[in-house]
UniProtKB/TrEMBL annotation:
Superkingdom of the source species: Bacteria
Protein name: M20/M25/M40 family metallo-hydrolase
Alphabetical keyword list: Hydrolase, Metal-binding, Protease
GO molecular function, one term: metal ion binding
Record PANTHER family: BETA-ALA-HIS DIPEPTIDASE, SUCCINYL-DIAMINOPIMELATE DESUCCINYLASE
One Pfam family per UniProt: Peptidase_M20
The Peptidase M20 dimerisation domain, residue ranges: 204-363
GO terms under biological process: proteolysis
Species, as recorded: Stakelama tenebrarum
Amino acid sequence: MTSPHETAALDHVDAQIDASLDRLIALMRIPSISTDPAHKDDCLRAARSQADELADLGFAARVAPTQGHPMVVAHHAGPGGDAPHLLFYGHYDVQPADPIELWRHGPFDPVIETRDDGSKQVVGRGACDDKGQFRTFIEAFRAILESGGTLPCRVTVLLEGEEESGSESLEPFLRDNMQELKADVAMICDTGAWDADTPGITTGLRGTAAGQVTIRAADRDLHSGLYGGPARNPNEVLARILGSMKDEDGRVTLDGFYDGVAPIDSELRAAWDKLGFDGDAFLREVELSVPAGEKGHDVLEQSWARPTAEINGMWGGYISEGFKTVIPSEAHAKVSFRLVGDQDPDKVWDSFKRHVRAHLPADCEASFKPRGGSRAISLATDSAPLRAARAALDAEWGKSALLASGGSIPVVNSIKAILGMDTVMVGFALNDDNIHSPNEKYDLKAFYKGIRSWVRILNALGQVDTERTEAVAAE
């Protein structure tokens, strides 16, 4: 049953949704691109804006420096006493906007668009990943506090500024501030809903291994008219090597790559089959028609439960406008692997390096720049916090939240390993939100219902007996 305080907060969300959207758009205007040193000041500006707002809401908030971009840390005592303590994590940094020419509007000049069916979306970099998403729980805090209530839980907020560029400062910061950040459970809103009308809770994440490889041959770029033929071409060498990472059935050929990959449990497979997922429609949304992954595994299984090897970028030689007939001295590629089960990211990356070196021809050498990695993670589906969150989502959306597997969120592993906490992942992104792509968007329905959902989740979690939950988990 909805309490009077919860009803008042939900009414506040309804009455103030335009102001909530204005605050999101103001944040989206800040080009907080963490990977580009030119935007260092923008990242600091974004961090300060969120810390200032949380302070205005009654949080003890600060911008905490790191070796890279700063963290935002904020605390609210809630009702005090032994109320459950929640750690809310999000990230204020965003991906670069390239290629700029493919955007319908300026990537940092957010626009509200109306689709053919009358629904609306906000378009701009960070709309969904992760500014629109984490703003849903900050707006929920605001609605509860400004409607005359207090937060039903003790709350700590941690906003990172390097998630899109490797999170190099995250684990040292967690270790250095362990006592301050430790809570009963972490909450992350950087995942997706099942569809526009059905919420989801992510209970499994694939791990990652990633980095860059460079192939070198001659000591300088060569004129193809003089050296074409006898000179080794690194572009050709790299393309051939990367192409050999998969066989004709889409299976990854790296030695030991599938170590730790278990077949899908039959009971889980049966549950997935009941979801009614249409793999053909999933591909049609991006104008594709033929599944390209491992044969014998359908689209849903490939997305949720199978490991992958992907080439994320390749370059070498002359790549600007016009034409220049050179044989480059170097060729480069960025590659990434999505991992499942017990796959070890370090072993996968070492296997990739061995594969490259084993296929190098004479006069070529390879170098590597690893970007780090994380193991896959599977979360308990019967914990008290997850059950409370699912019941709250059911109340808001009128249908049961689906439990699903997601992409890769390394911070979940870091929080577990360093802070000893489990995570509940509730997000409202959709497959067509163009995350990391031009014209990134966030449905206004997702933003609005997301805020209302967090109001309900906070109230539901305020009733969870965390001491009993920990005791049961220990048993």
